[in-house]
Design goal:
With 250 residues, the protein is mainly beta. The protein has 1 helix and 15 strands, in the order H-E-E-E-E-E-E-E-E-E-E-E-E-E-E-E.
Length: 250
């Protein structure tokens, strides 16, 4: 399972963007720096990294299968996280990475003050977290898979000689989640309740976009799964990420 997860997150980095969706056909590639935190309730453990690095890209086409404009996005994120838990102490420098791929259907509308693009689609996010060398009593690997449905709207202002603004907001309900924990022979928990929020505000011109972004995940308690004599639940958790994004369009 680990090798397939690593392959997925690497491939995702070839095609995903943390940019504001545009209806202009073409390609985008870029990078990000930021801050990442993951917390489980009630105060069970936390992972934090203030040195997140990411690469992202996107492909936008004018029409797909006669349905109109569409967009394929992908993103790869890597961070070294610090672990802390009231029950098992603290440790540093655990490996944390995830890949994400999204397919979006765009509905651009030209208005007097710019362009508005409602969009919807399907996304998959797969995260690998190596806790084998942390202070946790078990020392195990975690693999999280989320399938979700992005629902958002983007806005592009008219551009002047100094460029323009690109804004987007998104809400995405979790359709299905699966959490693998490498404890004993492995525990797999199903997750059915949660949502994702995404906000972006960028300066742009014909070729570049740059500015801050924010992402938030809330995922509820999972079901119970057992491996040997150990039974576990993936508790309610929150993921926050914010940073600065730059991309080039061609």
């Amino acid at each position: 399972m680990k090798k397939y997860t690593l392959l997925f997150v690497l491939l995702a980095g070839l095609v995903q963007a943390q940019t504001v969706p545009s209806s202009d056909a073409g390609y985008e590639i870029g990078g990000q720096v930021g801050d990442y935190s993951y917390r489980e309730n009630p105060n069970l453990m936390e992972l934090h990294a203030d040195g997140l690095l990411a690469v992202h890209g996107a492909i936008t086409v004018d029409d797909i299968l006669g349905l109109g404009p569409a967009r394929l996005e992908g993103r790869f994120v890597h961070a070294r996280t610090d672990y802390s838990s009231p029950s098992s102490g603290t440790s540093e420098n655990s490996r944390n990475m995830y890949g994400e791929i999204r397919a979006l259907r765009l509905n651009p509308m030209q208005v007097a003050y710019g362009e508005i693009i409602p969009y919807y689609g399907l996304g998959i996010r797969r995260l690998y977290n190596d806790l084998k060398d942390t202070a946790t009593a078990f020392g195990y690997e975690r693999i999280s898979t989320y399938i979700y449905a992005p629902l958002g709207v983007a806005y592009h202002s008219p551009q002047t000689n100094y460029g323009g603004m690109a804004l987007s907001g998104e809400f995405a309900p979790l359709l299905y989640g699966r959490q693998y924990s490498g404890i004993n022979d492995g525990i797999e928990n199903n997750q059915t309740e949660g949502y994702h929020l995404r906000l972006t505000a960028l300066w742009e011109n014909k070729q570049f976009q740059a500015g801050p972004y924010y992402q938030f995940w809330r995922v509820g308690d999972s079901d119970v799964d057992c491996s040997g004599s150990f039974c576990g639940v993936e508790p309610k958790n929150f993921t926050r990420e914010f940073g600065f994004s730059v991309s080039y369009k061609f």
